[in-house]
Predict the 3D structure of the following.
Amino acid sequence: MYQGLIHRYKNFLDLPEHTKIISLNEGNTPLIPMPRLSKELGCEIYIKFEGLNPTGSFKDRGMTAAISEAVGRGAETVICASTGNTAASAAAYAARAGLRSIVLIPEGKVAVGKLAGAIAYGAQVIQIQGSFDDALSLVVEITQKTPIALVNSINPFRIEGQKTAAFEICDDLNAAPDWLCLPVGNAGNITSYWAGFKQYQKGLPRLLGVQAVGSAPLVFGHTFEKPETIATAIRIGKPARGEQALEAASESKGKIIAVSDEEILSAQKILAGEGVWVEPASAAGVAGLIAESTKSQFEAKGKRVVVVCTGHGMKDPAIITESFQSPKIIPASYESLAEVIFSK
Ligand code: F0G
């Protein structure tokens, strides 16, 4: 029986002796072929659908490792700053381990499915009158001054756990893909993938990291004091692992680019049109690939491409329900039903 990713990849993860495994059988997510999009763009595209992790995002990979380590060394309380997904994941794994969890989120900027998750799993949720970056500074300070354990991706064990997504892709394809496209926020995930591919020695992909244009410090080369984007998960102006992300992109002969909110929403629709509903930030990888495909030199043409979709669409239902017409209401009669279905 599958027992989670620490169990599966134990020999590849640098975790201390004291680690006590806390797992929700995360990982083992599918690589879904995208025949229509592949045909349209002229490459072989697969989605690594990380929204199918236990709390609905890729964060569970790093969190099983971070919480397992924290429990093993006797931590009683964990804390993180979050745009939402880390919060829900930390809360779930802390609950599983019997720890107290505290999550700091930017006021009013967290999608409802994430907030609901953090509350459901029993976290103490605190809204900060500021950005994710402000919240992260605060949790760093409090974990330096008190025994509370930090579970943001500055924590090296988060990176260890998140490397396993690269291992799974290599195992599924029997080699690394030619390109790996993914959204970039605080830059923990791109750092982890690159470390994972290098360690696994089944080839190296070129990396296409994608930021939202209103929150693109790694593309424009300066921090964003007031980051903005509808992709709230990656609304981050000072990525903690920004340097590592830039290094990974350049070492891989890849790049980090920015896409507009419109391009992100359009990519979300294209993915859903092929049966994969992801939250807006998660569609950034596809948006970036599409943007690249319109250039005269489309480097991924004819290549095998894995696009990481980091979080499930159910995390942010409002982005859909607020902008679409609500479904028609009809009397409960056959005639009315036939009329709406067959009328032009
Ligand atoms: N996609 C989703 C759905 C995310 O939630 C995040 C980050 C990213 C992409 C970017 O990953 O930060 O490793 O570059 N969310 C964090 C959070 C910041 O608090 O949930 P990254």
Summary: Residues 59-72 form the longest helix (14 residues). The chain is about 40% helix and 15% strand.
